[in-house]
Amino acid sequence: MMKAQMKGISLMIILLMLVLTVQAAALRGTVTDEATKEPLIGAAVQLSGTNTGTITDVDGNF
């Protein structure tokens, strides 16, 4: 009985670590104007098909 509980707890810890690792992934980039190549400040950037998004900073970075 104790061995089965330890396996269950170990499995839960491994799954939790996997979830936290996936959520830690970062997406970075720069948004610039096509014509002038100037950075776009405050442009909305959203990951397609999700609710995950952000806006660019004063250098066009997200």
UniProtKB/TrEMBL annotation:
Record keywords, A-Z: Signal
InterPro entries per record: CarboxyPept-like_regulatory
Lyase among keywords: no
Pfam families reported for this sequence: CarbopepD_reg_2
Stretch forming the signal peptide: 1-24
Species: Phocaeicola vulgatus str. 3975 RP4
Protein name: Cna B-type domain protein
Keyword Signal: yes
